[in-house]
C-alpha cells in the first residue's frame, strides 16, 4: 500500500499525511493515524497557529501526539507552492477549515489532485459539503444540537442537555479516520485517490442510527424521560457513600428472579406488581423507590463486587478520577505513558483500538510550534538554499 518505504512494525508506517487541521475533529482523526505509524505532518500558519494550543496543554497534546509540526504561510504564493510540493509525495491530505477556504487558498481537492492524482483528500466539516448550510460555521456543541443528541438526554423538565465537550468532534474524527482507511484500501486495489468527507452532523446522526431509524419506521419521536419513568432495571441508583451504580437488565424474564435473590429481597420476586410485564412498567415508580432504599444500604463498590460476582450486569458510574484508576482501564492499556517534551514521563489516553500483532503507541507528545519545518522540508527534497529563500520571503517559519 505504501511502496518503497521502511516498515517499522506499525501497520501505517510509511504513510505520509499532511495535516492542515485545527481544534479537534480533524486533529484527532490524524492523531489516530499517527498512533499506528503514519508520519503526520501538522501544518500551521505563522500568524495562525492551531487555536487548540491556547486552550489547554492536555487538549493540544491529546489531539496532536506523535505528529511533526511545520509552519507554512498558506496565503503566501511560495507557501502554497511548498505545500503542493509536499502533497506530491504524500498519501493523505486532511483539512477541516470552513467550506471554501482551502479552495480560495488554492489548496482544495482539485488543486491538490492535479499535483498528485492518487492523493486521499479528507475533509472534516460541520454540516457536510452539500446542502444550503454547508458553509455555516459549526463547532462541537452545534453538532450535538443539530444532530439530535441534546434533545434525547436529560429529564423532560430540563433544558436540552449537551454531552461532554468534544463528543461530536470525537465521533466525527473516528468517522473521518475510518473513511481515510477505506479510501486507502480502494487505492491499493485500483490506484485511484479520492475525496473523503465526514462531518459533525453526520457523525451524530450515525451515532444514533437505530434510534433515528425508529422514528423513520414509526413516525414517532421518542420522548425524553425522567429517571422515574425509565425501566427500573435499566437505570441508575445512588449508594450509601454517594456513588452511583448502573443496572442493565433489559430482559425481565431472565434477570428478575436472580436479581431479587442477589439484593436479599426474595419477597419481591413473586410480587405481582413487579415480576412480569406490563405490570412491572406500570408500577415502575414504586419499584424504583424501593430499589432506591435497597441500594442506599451499601457503598458503591460493595454493590458492584457483590452483584457482579453473582453474574449480574451492573457497573459503577465513575468520574474521571475513578476511571484513571479503574483496574480494567489500567490492565488494557487504555491509558499509557509517553515521553513529554519536558523530559517527564506522563500519562495520556492511549490509541483508540488495540491490535494484537502491531499495537499502536504514543512515541512522543505534540510538536512545538515550528519544531520540524526544516527537518521535514529537507526530507522532501528541499535544499538549504530553498529553505533560506522561503524563510527570507516569509513563506515558512515562525515570525
Automatic annotation (TrEMBL):
<dbReference type="Pfam" id="PF02515">
    <property type="entry name" value="CoA_transf_3"/>
</dbReference>
<dbReference type="InterPro" id="IPR044855">
    <property type="entry name" value="CoA-Trfase_III_dom3_sf"/>
</dbReference>
<dbReference type="InterPro" id="IPR003673">
    <property type="entry name" value="CoA-Trfase_fam_III"/>
</dbReference>
<dbReference type="InterPro" id="IPR023606">
    <property type="entry name" value="CoA-Trfase_III_dom_1_sf"/>
</dbReference>
<dbReference type="GO" id="GO:0016740">
    <property type="term" value="F:transferase activity"/>
</dbReference>
<protein>
    <submittedName>
        <fullName>CoA transferase</fullName>
    </submittedName>
</protein>
<keyword id="KW-0808">Transferase</keyword>
<dbReference type="InterPro" id="IPR050483">
    <property type="entry name" value="CoA-transferase_III_domain"/>
</dbReference>
